[in-house]
Amino acid sequence: MTTTRGALCTQALRRKTNPELVATIKLALKHHEWNNIAKIISGPTRKFPSLNLFEIEKHSKVGDTIVIPGKVLNKGDLTKKIKICALGISERAKEKLRISKSEFVQLVEEIKKNPKAEGIKVLT
Fold this sequence. Notes:
Blueprint: H1 4-13, H2 19-30, H3 35-41, E1 50-52, H4 53-58, E2 65-73, E3 83-89, H5 91-99, E4 103-106, H6 107-113, E5 120-122
Parallel strand pairs: 1-2, 2-3, 2-5, 3-4
Helix pairs in contact: 1-2, 2-3, 2-6
């Protein structure tokens, strides 16, 4: 973590109290391709992007892996089968994902499975 970005994220880790969020940031910092996500989620929680399903629908294609460094909300519908990776999701949005046969994965799990960030699309 010799880069400025890594140093800033490391300083921000000291202020974080959510152990899951801290683990996600640490894992993202280990993989260069995930550093932009680490920078976003190491900032203030109130600045995390929250996207509704209709926004995700508008910016995705069938089979996409969408990464949201924040929370997925339920406004709108999803008609495509996609994979969504985020820090959190509302219960109603999770139900709508099941209906569309889409998949939701916690961000930390996607970083573990895909450390090179291949084939992802980041929405903020």
